[in-house]
Amino acid sequence: MDYIKAIILGIVEGLTEFLPVSSTGHMILVADLLNFTGERAKTFEVVVQLGAVLAVFVLYFKRFIGFLKFDFSKGAGLNAIHIALGMIPAGVMGVLLHGLIKQYLFGTTTVLIALIAGGVLMIAAEQYQKRHVPSAETVDDITYKQAFGIGIFQILALWSGFSRSGSTISGGIFMGTSQKAAADFTFILSVPMMLGATGVDLYKSRDLLVPEDYGLFLLGLVVSFVVGLIAVVTFINLIKKLKLSWFAYYRFGLAAIFFLFLM
């Protein structure tokens, strides 16, 4: 049964990682329904996210190789400094508050609250977008200041259920980027952020990793990778074009359904 649960959670992760609806929130809620909880489940949730992130790395491979050129000249577009600035705020806070986050922000109730809070932020960003002309139409137009500002908004994603893509896309809009540019930056930024977060989490949870679970974790990772590849290609244009409020209303509906179920 655990292997069936791993497949289900891998599919959920792969489908939701790239939509502003919170993949972690979905996995926590679905895992609760499947009765797959506890420290072992929390570690599994981190590992399975890595599969979806690797899908982004494969699809944006040329862009990541380009960062190795370290071309910081004017007009060169997005570079490694942008990525570093986008990572620093959430990276520092994640390391400092790792224990508190795992203890207090990975529960079903906190996820439901985060789904609503994140939806409100997205609606606010959409309203802001209607009244302001973006200064960065594409991801290569993003400035260092905007990259750092988006990184600050990404701190909200440490709250499970808030959504990494939801917080960064909304943050990008508030910082003056188009929704398209913010979405591209979000996908690219997710790779080093999730690799770092997974590494830290696995190191701190190393005592919970036992050989008997390796197959289970690997299965979930592979499923999320395959589904993630399909999802990125399918959803990437969807996220750039659809109104953020549509995703927000979905989040509200999901929170209401699970709240009623739990009651």
Automatic annotation (TrEMBL):
Domain of life: Bacteria
Catalytic activity: di-trans,octa-cis-undecaprenyl diphosphate + H2O = di-trans,octa-cis-undecaprenyl phosphate + phosphate + H(+)
Subcellular location(s) of the protein: Cell membrane
Claim: Hydrolase is one of the keywords in the record: yes
Enzyme class: hydrolase
Pfam family, one: BacA
Annotated TM spans: 46-65, 77-98, 104-125, 182-203, 215-238, 244-262
Keyword terms of this UniProt record: Antibiotic resistance, Cell membrane, Cell shape, Cell wall biogenesis/degradation, Hydrolase, Membrane, Peptidoglycan synthesis, Transmembrane, Transmembrane helix
Primary site of residence: membrane
Membrane topology: Multi-pass membrane protein
EC number: 3.6.1.27
Keyword Cell membrane: yes
Entry GO MF terms: undecaprenyl-diphosphatase activity
Family: Belongs to the UppP family.
Protein name per its UniProtKB record: Undecaprenyl-diphosphatase
Organism taxonomic ancestry: Bacteria, Bacillati, Bacillota, Bacilli, Bacillales
Gene: uppP
